[in-house]
């Protein structure tokens, strides 16, 4: 992640429409309930932590970027009481084995390579309870290489890495957004070309 700067990375305020799309994507595809503890691994400034917090008991936002964690902590001070933060690497998560019901990660594993990727996957499996959910939203391809260290892995590569956790669902993240725009028929190819910032991502839900 050397040259990148995720200190203030967020788009939660850019468009209520897309934010609504994220929310629908989660609520439609992932089991969330008020008993759950969720780890948002690579939470950045916490847009997904904030989105999930009202639906679960506790969210733990983990990121190794202190500045991003500071931004999230400031947001938390303004009202969300069930978000905790950890400034740590995803390659050594300071949580006990089987301690979270769901580990969620959005466009973070795609920036982690080599031994660190193997360690991160091992840590996610270790902290997620058996029967829990591992939820990844990652680019499986992109038409633009918008960051220097982006690795677009196919869902089957993630499925292989997360074995024996079983891949339950794979869906494009793009389409829930499109439904909100009333543009169901436009192809992801064209959308990718026209709006490169929405290059397709895949939602993957694994049962641990
Ligand atoms: C593209 S940003 C996504 C942030 C957030 N998930 C979101 O959707 O807004 C990738 C995040 O991964 C974090 N990250 C990268 N390598 C990490 C590591 N080894 N451990 C923890 N976080 C890491 C970065 O600091 C950054 O916040």
Give an overview in words.
It contains 7 helices and 7 strands; from the N terminus they run H-E-H-E-H-E-E-H-E-H-E-H-H-E. It has one domain (16-207): Rossmann fold. A 7-stranded mixed beta sheet has the order 3-2-1-4-5-7-6, with helices on both faces. The protein is an alpha/beta fold. The protein has helices at 16-29, 47-52, 66-77, 114-127, 155-162, 174-181, 188-194, and strands at 37-41, 58-63, 83-87, 100-106, 128-139, 166-172, 201-207. S-adenosylmethionine binds next to helix 2.
What is the fold's blueprint, element by element?
Layout: H1 16-29, E1 37-41, H2 47-52, E2 58-63, H3 66-77, E3 83-87, E4 100-106, H4 114-127, E5 128-139, H5 155-162, E6 166-172, H6 174-181, H7 188-194, E7 201-207
Parallel strand pairs: 1-2, 1-4, 2-3, 4-5
Antiparallel strand pairs: 5-7, 6-7
This protein binds S-adenosylmethionine.
The site of S-adenosylmethionine (SAM) has 21 residues, from helix 2.
Q: How many domain units? A: 1
| Structural class by helix and strand composition | alpha/beta
The CATH C-level name is Alpha Beta
Gyration radius, in Å: 16 Å
Mean pLDDT reading: 83
Spatial shape? globular
Distance between the termini: 28 Å
């Amino acid at each position: 992640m050397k040259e990148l700067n995720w200190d203030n990375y967020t788009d939660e305020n850019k468009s209520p429409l897309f934010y609504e799309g994220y929310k629908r994507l989660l609520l439609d595809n992932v089991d969330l309930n008020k008993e759950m503890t969720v780890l948002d691994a690579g939470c950045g400034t916490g847009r997904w932590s904030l989105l999930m917090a009202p639906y679960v008991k506790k969210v733990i936002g983990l990121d190794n970027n202190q500045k991003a964690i500071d931004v999230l902590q400031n947001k938390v001070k303004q009202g969300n009481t069930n978000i905790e933060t950890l400034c740590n690497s995803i390659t050594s998560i300071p949580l006990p084995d089987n301690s979270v019901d769901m580990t969620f990660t959005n466009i973070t594993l795609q920036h982690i390579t080599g031994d660190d990727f193997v360690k991160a996957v091992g840590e996610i499996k270790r902290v997620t309870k058996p029967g829990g959910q591992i939820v990844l939203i990652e680019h499986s391809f992109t038409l633009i290489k918008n960051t220097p260290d982006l690795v677009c892995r196919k869902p089957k590569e993630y499925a292989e890495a997360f074995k024996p956790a079983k891949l339950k669902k794979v869906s494009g993240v793009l389409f829930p957004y499109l439904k909100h725009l009333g543009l169901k028929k436009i192809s992801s190819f064209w959308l990718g070309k026209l709006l490169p910032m929405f290059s397709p991502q895949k939602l993957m839900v694994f049962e641990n």
